[in-house]
Design goal:
Radius of gyration: 13 Å
Structural class: mainly beta
Organism: Kroppenstedtia sanguinis
Order of helices and strands: EEEEEEE
Helix content: under 10%
Strand content: over 45%
Subunit structure: Oligomer of 11 identical subunits arranged in doughnut-like structure.
Keywords: RNA-binding, Transcription, Transcription regulation
Protein name: Transcription attenuation protein MtrB
Strand order of the largest sheet: 4-1-6-7
Shape: globular
Distance between the termini: 37 Å
Family: Belongs to the MtrB family.
């Protein structure tokens, strides 16, 4: 499945306390789920009919079908 629903992504924590927060679809965007990862933990997640966006707080690698993003600021 592709497009709005079904795309998988991976978040790998580079430090303890990384937050992965799911945001809802629809007229009003709201937080609907939150996970806290410890250093080295990996979360595999999927966009669904309820989840339209994800916010990642902390140092982590976010791996998607479109590439990998490192949340650390590069000099």
């Amino acid at each position: 499945m592709a497009g709005q629903s079904g795309d998988f992504f991976v978040v790998k924590a580079k430090e303890s306390g990384v937050n992965v927060i799911g945001l809802t679809r629809g007229k009003d965007t709201r937080f609907h789920h939150s996970e806290k990862l410890d250093k080295g933990e990996v979360m595999v997640a999927q966009f669904t009919e309820h989840t339209s966006a994800v916010k990642v707080r902390g140092k982590a690698l976010v791996i998607t079908p479109f590439g990998t993003v490192d949340t650390e600021v590069e000099d």
